[in-house]
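[step 3/7] fold_predict: job queued, chain A
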Amino acid sequence: MITFITLVLILVCINAVMILTSLYGANKSRSTSNKSIADSSISKIYPLDLFSTDYKKAV
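[step 4/7] structure written:
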């Protein structure tokens, strides 16, 4: 029983460390992404040509 509790506590600690590092990384990337959005230019979006003329002729 002691072994089981020890393993569970170790896994919970590893999980907590991973969550904290993930949250820290998300906050850091959010602050840098706001700067890059302000600096980047607006890209053009072109429509997809899903129905080619060959397909329309076949139908």
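[step 5/7] annotate
The helical segments are 2-39, 53-58.
The longest helix spans residues 2-39.
exit 0
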